[in-house]
Amino acid sequence: MPSTASLQQTPHATAQPNLLWDVFCRVIDNFGDLGVCWRLSADLASRGHRVRLWVDDASALQWMAPGALDGRWPGVQVLPWNLSHDAAFLASLPAANVWVEGFGCEIAPDFIAHHAYSTGATGQFLVNNPVWINLEYLSAEPFVERSHGLPSPIMGGPAKGWTKHFFYPGFTTHTGGLLCEPDLLQHQRHFLDNAPTGGQRAAWLAQMGINAETGETLISLFCYEPAALPALLAQLDTRPTPTHLLVTAGRAGAAVRKFMDNGPTLRQVRISYLPPLNQVDFDHLLWTSDLNFVRGEDSVVRALWAGKPLVWQIYPQDDDAHIPKLDAFLDMLGAEAGLRAFHQVWNAGPSHPGTATLPAIDLPSWSQTVQATRERLLQMDDLTSQLLQFAQKKR
User: Measured between alpha carbons, how far is residue 4 from residues 47, 160, 279, 288 in Å?
Assistant: First the structure.
């Protein structure tokens, strides 16, 4: 694993005054909610700001961002959620300039009351209130443009009279954009630079214990438990060229192992099971592979920046609310019929069963689609830049 120092981003110069941010996260999916909140916190810190990340379960940061829990990330302090309603502890902290509620989590009433009454006691009530942002989930659906930036007045409690604002990440210039560190593309180009020895890519593959052979198609697999997994493996096994499947730890690894334990023989597919990857190494996996299967919100954004063909398994919801969300994403992507059909089968579940066989993978066509989307998205301001602009405007 790389050292903690190599994971940390280089601070970037900024013309804006440095701010103190409180970012709040209640974990539902360790890899999604916490991944986004951590990536945002680290990006803010790399731009010279200070961040307190309040989280109810920070355990995934042990492998996602080694050193984060030990205070070895300059500019970011990870704090347990229960301290956000500890009056004595709060009294020892300076007031933040910005509050960010990640994905609809609600700040503890005690925390709000402490800030309201402390600023009121010093005559600052309703003068130096923090900019209060409700950072929502990523979606390409039309309501995002309509809802982005809308105010939500606080009608009761100690914060009565304050206003929080909805902030929607998204894929258009009328949304909050996507997380993308200023030096991400530079790191990507350096990683993929084809030096005579293979450069960083070859060294990373060796570090991960992956013996990639010439002519193999490298495919990363980060998923839940798709019903179409056997069909995918069967298709890969009939391709004219060999495939090396790089399976991520956790549910993807468990799903593949469960299927393979039933005894199928694969002649054209080699499988490597990876250890838990920190966020930097997960980017390396996406940059290395010829096709990326990703799941959730954070990883699909990183797969877009990787610029490789991708297949997204969206987080399933009981009321099938994920289906129109997936369709909107495919519309945004400009997905051709084959890529769209592949997504529909890959995302089929018990309440929305797939009715067709898994379409053939078309790497050249899917690559063009993702590359075109990537180029368009790179013309937009990234999420962190837009949050900074918004916070400065509302102060």
Answer: 18, 43, 12, 21
* CA geometry: angle 291, 276, 326, nearest 5 deg: 45
In this structure, what are the phi and psi dihedrals at residue 366, rounded to the nearest 5 degrees? -65, -35
What is the SS3 string spanning the chain?
A: CCCHHHHCCCCCCCCCCCCEEEEEECCCCCCCHHHHHHHHHHHHHHCCCEEEEEECCCCCHHHHCCCHHHCCCCCEEEEEHHHHHCHHHHHCCCCCCEEEEECCCCCCHHHHHHHHHHHHHCCCCCCCCCEEEEECCCCCCCHHHHHCCCEEECCCCCCCCCEEEEECCCCCCCCCCCCCCCCHHHHHHHHHCCCCCCHHHHHHHHHCCCCCCCCCEEEEECCCCCCCHHHHHHHHHCCCCCEEEEECCCHHHHHHHHHHCCCCCCCCEEEEECCCCCHHHHHHHHHHCCEEEEECCHHHHHHHHHCCCEEEECCCCCCCCHHHHHHHHHHHHCCCHHHHHHHHHHCCECCECCCCCCCCCCHHHHHHHHHHHHHHHCCCCCHHHHHHHHHHHHC
Q: What distance in Å separates the CA atoms of residue 19 and residue 16, rounded to the nearest whole number?
A: 9
Both structure tokens of 256: 């593949």
Query: Mind listing the pLDDT tens digit of every residue in the chain (395 residues)?
Result: 444 444 555 555 555 679 999 999 999 877 889 999 999 999 999 999 999 999 999 999 999 999 999 999 999 999 999 999 999 999 999 999 999 999 989 999 999 999 888 765 554 444 478 999 999 999 999 999 999 999 999 999 889 999 999 999 999 999 999 999 999 999 999 999 876 666 799 999 999 999 989 999 999 999 999 999 999 999 999 999 999 999 999 999 999 999 999 878 999 999 999 999 999 999 999 999 999 999 999 999 999 999 999 999 999 887 888 999 999 999 999 999 999 999 999 998 755 544 568 999 999 999 999 999 999 999 999 999 999 999 999 98
Amino acid residing at 88: A
The residues annotated as belonging to the active site are: 33, 297
pTM for the predicted model, two decimal places: 0.92
| 126 vs 128: CA distance, rounded Å | 6
Compute and round to an integer the Cα radius of gyration of the chain: 22
